[in-house]
Design a protein that fits this description.
Number of helices: 5
Number of strands: 10
Structural class: alpha+beta
Order of helices and strands: EHEEHEEEHEEEHHE
Helix content: 10-25%
Distance between the termini: 23 Å
Mean pLDDT: 96
Oligomer: single chain
Largest sheet: 10 strands, mixed
Radius of gyration: 19 Å
Strand content: 25-35%
């Protein structure tokens, strides 16, 4: 028996998120089915980040245990011949038998991308959020600074979440602009359910002038989900990277 780690990239448009759901097509479900057929044994992967329906990823991770004699590094090539075009195994490798993608020290990077111009762009419609409202990017940058560091982010967590501890640390939260494209880039060792999308929705309201940057302190202190902005649409969000501390 050996444990294999996969680095997985996917376009989440046609999937109901990562996690298996009854009667729905998910990334996890497709991986389980394809691996089971390839290796001729029942395989169930364990993922690092359970991304939502419509969210994309450049580098999510999962592991599975197998009796196969196929070298771990060759599994990626065999899988990519069988997977649909919107899912790709970037890398496969053997790891220690106790290595778990959710219990290792790691740094996650998410990016939320906004198209800000007069008319929508159909080419980028599946991977960005479009708004014609002129956004004040400087104010968005100022507001982002208030959210960096360790805070209780209960106001930025979807209601109904079962998590007990809502304290998280955002190592950096950057807002950049390149032409008509605005990117919100969040780095941290863990995020609450819908936290990045709620942050994006809140920063959008700052950019639109509905909130002031200084309001961020009051929103955090309130611990009230109703005080933060709307949850931004899923298609603009991408899991860019999970960087593990291999030591």
């Amino acid at each position: 028996m050996k444990r294999v780690r996969l680095k997985v990239a996917y376009d989440g448009t046609n999937y109901c998120g990562w996690q298996i759901q009854p009667n729905e097509v998910t990334i996890e479900g497709v991986l389980n089915e394809t691996l089971s057929e390839l290796l001729d044994e029942e395989i169930e992967v364990v993922g690092a980040s359970r991304t939502d329906s419509g969210v994309h990823a450049d580098g999510n991770y999962c592991v599975f245990d197998t009796e196969t004699h196929i070298p771990a590094e060759k599994i990626a090539y065999a899988m990519n011949q069988r997977l649909p075009e919107d899912i790709s195994i970037v890398k496969s490798e053997e790891v220690d038998s106790d290595w778990h993608p959710r219990y290792q020290n790691s740094m996650k990077t998410y990016q939320y991308t906004i198209i800000n111009r007069d008319m929508p762009d159909p080419v980028r419609r599946l991977y960005t959020y479009f708004t014609y409202a002129k956004l004040d990017v400087d104010k968005m940058k100022e507001a982002a600074k208030y959210l960096e560091g360790e805070h209780d982010f209960e106001a930025f967590c979807s209601t109904g979440s079962q998590v007990e501890n809502t304290v998280r640390t955002i190592e950096s939260l950057k807002v950049t602009q390149n032409g008509d494209e605005i990117a919100i880039i969040a780095k941290g060792n863990g995020f609450l359910y819908n936290m990045v999308r709620i942050i994006a929705g809140t920063l959008l309201e700052v950019g639109e002038g509905k909130l002031e940057p200084s309001d961020m302190d009051d929103i955090i202190a309130s611990k009230d989900r109703g005080r933060a902005g709307k949850t931004a649409v899923a298609r603009g969000l991408r899991l860019v990277e999970i960087k593990y501390d291999e030591n």
